[in-house]
Amino acid sequence: MTTDFTSIPILDLFLAHSDKPKFLAELQHALIHVGFFYVKNHSVTPVFLEQLTQLTTGFFDLPLEEKLKTDKIHSPTFLGYSIQGNEITKNKKDNREQYDFANELPSSWEEGHPIYERLTGPNLWPDNTHLPDFRETILSFHEQAKSLAELLTQYVAEALGLEPNALIERFVVPGQQHRAKLIKYPAVDSLAPEDGTQGVGPHRDTASLLTILYQANDLPGLQVQNHSGEWIDAPAIADTFVVNIGTGLEYLVHGIAVATTHRVLNPHAGKGPRYSIPFFYGARLDKKIAPVEISDELLTKKPVTVVTDSGHQFFKMYAENPGLYALLNRMSSHRDVSAKFYPELSREHGII
Ligand SMILES: O=C(O)CCC(=O)C(=O)O
Ligand SMILES: [Fe+2]
């Protein structure tokens, strides 16, 4: 009998070297019973993270017309800027501004190809004169977060009794696109009273294996829903990343790692904005994939019920068509892009 979690475990990557069995046992517990954990002693330096934070605030401080030049509405990839209130989670507007980016890839979709291929394409960069180091720093963060995600996915495999590369080999295509975001959550005193406090509504991270999140300043706001439905704070802890499971991994390991629901509340009045930077380590979208074998002994440890306030958008579709599932989730978050580039699909799936 395990009691429900009331805090998020902190995993120390040094332990993975000094006492690997202990590390894997702690990781296994976090995967099955929490779905979230912090990692400390990773290889991303504080100096780099400080530079990334400066550029993040620098981007959001640009004049609105500059940010709007990179608006998502210019591209079917859902990469680029979203003005505050553009994104919708659980049918409600999120009070956050964001800039979505990915490893740089050209568009390859053409008429007749599977529609989800339109998600892949180049970034929409802000003008170089405003933030000269922006592109290089953002892409460097992307590389470093991806390396950490790969390492953690190997440990996740081992913690679930698999070969280290068992998940990556089957579920990740070398060179595929992985998405990430810079996010700004304004404090409530810079919102209208009717906006409420939903920075981002209750959700599970869709289609990915792992999320690696950097909380760029130390304001609270991120909350994680435990299995009985209570909201548990995940405060910023210096020099750590917060890691959580996406619905891709949950499906691919028979639910033994839980894609835990989470949300963000806007900062209290007078606190100023909260900034965060998630990287989503994606799973392949190009074909239907069967889950891996997990031992019966481990499967008996699976939580019996997990209460969630998340909408489970289109989750049943994942097993059949992960690409379409990923696309529909993007579309339902950004209705303007959806209406412009995917009008028929929007009608078909009631995304209006
Ligand atoms: O900003 C955060 O702390 C969490 C962001 C998040 O959950 C998301 O963008 O999926
Ligand atoms: Fe999330």
From TrEMBL:
Keywords: Iron, Metal-binding, Oxidoreductase
Record-given protein name: Fe2OG dioxygenase domain-containing protein
Lineage, broadest ranks: Eukaryota, Fungi, Fungi incertae sedis, Zoopagomycota, Kickxellomycotina
Domain Fe2OG dioxygenase stretches: 176-283
PROSITE patterns noted in UniProt: FE2OG_OXY
Annotated organism of origin: Coemansia spiralis
GO molecular function per UniProt: metal ion binding; oxidoreductase activity
Family stated for the protein in its record: Belongs to the iron/ascorbate-dependent oxidoreductase family.
Superkingdom as given in the UniProt entry: Eukaryota
